[in-house]
Specification:
Elements: H1 8-31, H2 38-45, H3 49-55, H4 64-79, H5 87-99, H6 104-120, H7 124-149, H8 155-176, H9 188-201
Helix pairs in contact: 1-2, 1-6, 2-3, 4-5, 4-7, 5-9, 6-7, 7-8, 8-9
Length: 213
């Protein structure tokens, strides 16, 4: 992976995109994607409409940076795990950490995410953004998992575990987004993701026994 630090211009661009994404997420969560225009998102973000379209093709695309940042935070936490820690335990621990709100800002982020997924139920374009971001995250997660697993790990098992961990997060958030008051129990997404991870990885052998063993 490229470890070159981003330039000042790249950091400013990323900051602008994230601010636009936050504005879009707030509006989509509150009103649904159909009721929101790109012009309204631009106004909320404090930018011109032409600036919005410089960064995003559609209003739905605008939420991708917010989702990408969340996935990146998870991978960073996982990458910092000790190689001695059981891989599934490390995945479970970091999933719970990123899905458990510990501040008002965390709770607001969870509200936006659940609201986005609720809105996506009626918006195919928004669902495509969600699936795309998670698909890209899964590919990048494989590299982190492979490093933690060390040499000799079964590549097939690594792919299964990366897919299972990504799906555990998705399933938990999607399921919680369907309830009437998703923030009544802020710990529900983490609890459900933990359960899904264990169910999906049950029986997966990271280091299969040697032939004839």
């Amino acid at each position: 992976m490229d470890s070159t630090p981003p330039s000042l211009t790249q950091r400013r661009k990323a900051a602008t995109q994230l601010e636009i994404a936050r504005a879009a997420a707030r509006l989509f969560a509150d009103r649904g994607a159909d009721a929101v225009t790109a012009e309204e998102i631009a106004q909320q973000a404090g930018i011109a409409v032409r600036t919005f379209y410089r960064y995003f093709r559609t209003k739905e695309d605008a939420v991708a940076p917010l989702l990408t940042v969340g996935a990146g935070h998870w991978r960073t936490l996982l990458a910092a795990a000790s190689p001695q820690e059981d891989l599934i335990d490390a995945l479970e621990r970091t999933i719970v950490e990123v899905l458990t709100p510990r501040s008002d800002d965390d709770l607001e982020m969870l509200r936006w995410t659940l609201g986005l997924l609720h809105a996506a139920a009626d918006d195919a374009a928004l669902r495509l953004v969600w699936y795309r971001v998670n698909g890209e995250s899964e590919v990048q997660l494989r590299e982190v998992i492979a490093t933690l697993a060390g040499p000799g790990a079964d590549p097939y098992a690594l792919r299964l575990i990366a897919a299972a961990a990504t799906d555990a997060m998705c399933i938990a958030i999607e399921e919680c987004a369907t309830v009437e008051d998703p923030l009544l129990d802020p710990g529900a997404p983490a609890a459900l993701a933990r359960r899904a991870l264990r169910d999906l990885t049950r029986g997966v052998q990271l280091h299969p026994p040697a032939a004839g063993g």
